[in-house]
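Lab notebook, design round three. We kept the backbone fixed and only want residue identities now. Task for the bench partner: fill in a sequence for the structure below.
Input structure tokens:
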């Protein structure tokens, strides 16, 4: 009898071949998928892809803190007790809200778009480092430079969570953050945090180990730059000289005007030292960020515990704008310079007004230098200008 030629045996062998072919095909598909996953997991995101809009600023005469706030320093050690956070709010409207609200910034949505296509892997984490100030000090330049580092991902716009939107809760705040891989640092910058009294306590409540970065600039130059930004959008405002004084005849400076008050760095720093030690706060010179961007960025990378990857090779000096720009990425046809709102020509200010402002800021600058141990050479710069 020819059993091997029976219909039953033949069907069984056909079924076996089909099953083997299906199993082999499935195995090959799994191997290919695994290899593809391993490859893509090695691609590191560099920039945040959030295309949100920006553009608002402080109004003339606005006060960041009550005019009666003391102007003396009583530096104390950071508090060790835990601080409770406020109740979380809905997360769903986070991005739509930032679309509607202009943020204090200068780069356009296109400039904030990522230059390299990167896979959207990782987790949204609360920031481990925050650029907290100061307005018109050079925070945008610092943010754009540090975003070049492959181990840093940052929000392109200013979230204003710890000053304007704190009632929306930490989960809302987290939803604004870019996704990061293990070993990468999440960052954001909102310069108004530095002059917001509630911000230190709120950030301490989120994570007491948060690293803080403050970009400071000669307070007189900073005030004029602040005024220039406002003037470009509201040309009807009074002159700088009018806004700077309560009584010009008596030489009384109006410290309640935000453009003046922001520059009293020692006053605001006292508030932060109630919660954070100096070791967790890094001060960047806005002037040196222009003269030697690679040198300042090297110190920032050291402070963040990062390898020094952002170096001289990433910068070139733009003579038209008058400040350094980032060299163009390989996949871009143009260099990355800050927007038109940076490098505006300052209006001519009465030299007597500048002299009075320098005299007003001098004792606060001395206190600021004594606390930080940093010498920003502002007095030296002023003497050179006078001579």
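Proposed sequence:
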């Amino acid at each position: 009898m020819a059993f091997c030629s029976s219909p039953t045996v033949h069907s069984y062998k056909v079924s076996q071949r089909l099953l083997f072919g299906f199993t082999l095909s499935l195995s090959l598909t799994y191997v290919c998928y695994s290899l593809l996953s391993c490859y893509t997991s090695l691609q590191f995101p560099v920039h945040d892809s959030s295309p949100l809009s920006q553009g608002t600023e402080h109004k003339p005469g606005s006060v960041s803190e009550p005019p009666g706030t003391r102007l003396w320093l009583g530096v104390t050690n950071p508090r060790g007790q835990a601080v409770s956070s406020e109740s979380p709010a809905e997360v769903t409207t986070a991005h739509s809200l930032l679309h509607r609200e202009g943020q204090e910034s200068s780069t356009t949505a296109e400039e904030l778009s990522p230059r390299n296509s990167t896979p959207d892997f990782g987790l949204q984490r609360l920031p481990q480092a925050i650029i907290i100030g100061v307005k018109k000090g050079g925070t945008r330049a610092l943010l754009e430079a540090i975003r070049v580092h492959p181990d840093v991902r940052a929000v392109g716009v200013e979230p204003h969570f710890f000053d304007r939107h704190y009632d929306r809760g930490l989960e809302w705040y987290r939803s604004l953050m870019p996704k990061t891989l293990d070993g990468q640092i999440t960052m954001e910058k909102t310069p108004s945090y530095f002059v917001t009294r509630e911000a230190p306590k709120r950030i301490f409540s989120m994570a007491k180990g948060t690293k803080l970065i403050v970009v400071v600039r000669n307070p007189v130059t900073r005030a004029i730059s602040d005024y220039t930004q406002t003037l470009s959008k509201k040309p009807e405002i009074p002159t700088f000289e009018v806004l700077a004084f309560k009584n010009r005849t008596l030489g009384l400076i109006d410290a309640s005007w935000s453009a003046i008050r922001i520059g009293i760095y020692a006053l605001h720093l006292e508030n932060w030292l109630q919660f954070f030690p100096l070791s967790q706060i890094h001060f960047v010179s806005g002037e040196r960020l222009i003269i030697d961007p690679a040198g300042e960025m090297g110190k920032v990378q050291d402070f963040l515990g990062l390898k020094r990857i952002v170096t001289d090779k990433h910068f070139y000096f733009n003579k038209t704008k008058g400040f350094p720009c980032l060299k163009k990425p390989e996949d871009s046809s143009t260099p990355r310079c800050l927007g038109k709102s940076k490098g505006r020509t300052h209006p001519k200010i009465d030299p007597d007004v500048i002299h009075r402002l320098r005299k007003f800021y001098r004792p606060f600058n001395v206190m600021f230098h004594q606390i930080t141990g940093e010498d920003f050479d502002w007095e030296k710069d002023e003497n050179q200008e006078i001579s």
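Keep this in mind before ordering anything: Residues 1-5, 29-119, 330-335 have pLDDT under 50 and may be disordered.
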